[in-house]
């Protein structure tokens, strides 16, 4: 299952380690102190996103045309598994006393981010263009700092890396 399986992500902020994607507990970000003791578990305010036939078509079309996967498609197509729903969190980031959860929800070519305080209270939901879901095997190179999302993107036409900078709506210090 290319969509559901991903490695755990972690961030260190001051004396805390934030870890997501472990124990099969999708939608929970664990918080540990500097000694490795769990001090909190922040649950994502998740609304299930159905994996539709359109999503399946987009994924297969991408698989067939992507230079890194198209040569393997015929060999692996029988092994592709598509879920009923997307996982709650695609990626996450911690910065400036906020947790940014990237979901699989998309609208007008943009990805949803749920912004939480450090205890899990929802502060905002924003849409920022990063990467469509079907490119799940592509490493998403981005960071968040001081209310901006910095996305390093490979321009396939020029074969050069570009930095795309997006303001995060509603960001307040």
Q: What is the radius of gyration computed over CA atoms, rounded to a whole number of angstroms? A: 17 Å
What is the structural class? mainly beta
Tell me the β content: 35-45%
Summarize the biggest pleated sheet: 4 strands, antiparallel
List how many beta strands DSSP finds: 11
Helical amount among residues, as a percent range?
under 10%
Query: Mean of residue pLDDT?
Result: 83
- Spatial order of strands in the largest sheet: 1-2-3-4
Overall geometry:
globular
Distance, first to last CA? 39 Å
Order of helices and strands: EEEEHHEEEEEEE
- The oligomeric state is single chain
| Low-pLDDT windows of residues | none
| Tally of helical segments | 2
Q: Brief overview, please?
A:
The chain has helices spanning 53-65, 73-76; strands at 9-13, 16-20, 28-33, 38-43, 91-95, 98-107, 110-117, 122-128, 141-145, 148-155, 160-167.
Please give a structural write-up:
With 173 residues, the protein is mostly beta strands. Helix content is 10%, strand content 42%. The chain is built from 2 helices and 11 strands. It has helices spanning 53-65, 73-76; strands spanning 9-13, 16-20, 28-33, 38-43, 91-95, 98-107, 110-117, 122-128, 141-145, 148-155, 160-167. A 4-stranded antiparallel β-sheet has the order 1-2-3-4, with no helix packed on it. A 4-stranded antiparallel β-sheet has the order 5-6-7-8, with no helix packed on it. It has a 3-stranded antiparallel β-sheet with strand order 9-10-11, with no helix packed on it. Strand 10 and strand 11 (160-167) form a beta hairpin. The longest helix is centred in the middle third of the chain and has 13 residues, at 53-65. It is globular, with a radius of gyration of 17 Å. The relative contact order is 0.15. The model has no long low-confidence stretch (mean pLDDT 83).
